[in-house]
Amino acid sequence: MTTSTTGTDTLTRDALAVLQPGFAGTTAPDWVRRRLSEGLASVALFGRNVATAEQVAALTAQLRAERDDLLVAIDEESGDVTRLEVRTGSSFPGNHALGAVDDTALTRGVARELGRRLAECGVNFNWAPSADVNANPDNPVIGVRSFGSDTDLVARHTAAWVEGLQSTGVAACTKHFPGHGDTSVDSHHAVPHIDLDATTLHERELQPFRAAIAAGTRAVMSAHIRVPVLDPDRPATLSRRILTDLLRGELGYQGLIVTDGMEMRAVSGTYGLEHGVVLAIAAGADAICVGGGLCDEGTVQSLTDALVAAVRSGELPEERLVDAAARVRALADWTAGARRSPGPGDGREPEIGLTAARRAVTVTRTGPAAPPVTGPVYVATFHPAANIAVGDETPWGVGPELERLLPGTATGSFTGPDAGARALEAAAGRRVVAVVRDEHRHAWMRTALDTLLAAGPDTVVVEMGVPQSAPRGALYVATHGAARVCGVAAAEAVVAG
Predict the structure, then answer these.
(1) What is the model's pTM?
(2) Which of 64, 86, 280, 394 could cross-link 285 (Cys pair, CB 3.0–4.6 Å)?
């Protein structure tokens, strides 16, 4: 039996208030507008909802016509994970590039300019930054989304990013608590285990979150990871020991706690979506992120029903749901009263993203001297499978920019065990610029570079992931990320030699 949400009873309104659902389309569906009048307090935007900045502004205005204190959330980390520029690539480098520069004023400025653009679009809640310490080079889901592998560096840049974003009235959401960096499993597919001792956990994983809390982060996102030293039974998102005892109790955090996407198999595949949502709220989460995959009214209905039924059966204390809903509304109040971005042209830094990307580039010359790149080349891009967080919609690489800088340049994309041989054949004797992403994690990619370098020692290598492998190639350019501006900066470095 379903619970009707057409009325205005307090229990139903509170259940709706803790959901942060997505929807399809670039205009507001009727069902979303109706739910807003019934108690829904947040919506989430994904790449499918974005065409242009002007269209997003019109969409959020349409939504706020139904509820003016609405939280509009987005997963806009910049760098490799972008929703606002999903079809072009980000105008801002991601965390790893900012960490490579290691200038907290620059990081603060980049986040501030990003916040201004979000605020102009009517977005007031950003599921970023990632505060994960990239302790495991084989991590398939964090990588360049992390500021780096040094705890102190990650902590100070996390704090700077939070301060910069929130100075524009956009709430930050520091993630993925208690730290997703030391895993080789992607929680979109399964439950990662973080087998750390208590000392390492507190001295490495938790320090960036402490810094974010000190900087005033308005939200923290939980990770779907199991940390046996904290809770041997349940992943962090469903663990009272982690969300309530550790985050609220020991760390003293009083802001909003948001779950990572609840459709991810680490939760939905083990506990079921509806039961997982109930367990998360009971454990101490205040808001449920859902809609990256399931973005229909039926999902909102079933989750509302599950929460209402859990309260009525005694499985979920009503006061816990009331508290969670109150924290969501409190964040909405903060965004409504927070300082907004300056007026047009006032203090803006429109080129700060490209400036940061250029500063992040490192160039290494290896092997015998090779002539500079002055004429057309063949750009061979080696594509790994994209993780779900990054997605496969966003273009990356250096091909378009090198085609502009070096007319006559041709490009091709390759993957798989024979990628190097196919790239060499396609190049047809032209000088090659080989573009890779996390070479150290892909044996086929290493083999492809071996093939190209054996045939052409003057091959230029551009690494757009984590530069963990030893530099090689006549010129080795590391961008520390694959944002659009990183591609521009890399192409400039290739031509400059």
Answers:
(1) 0.94
(2) 280
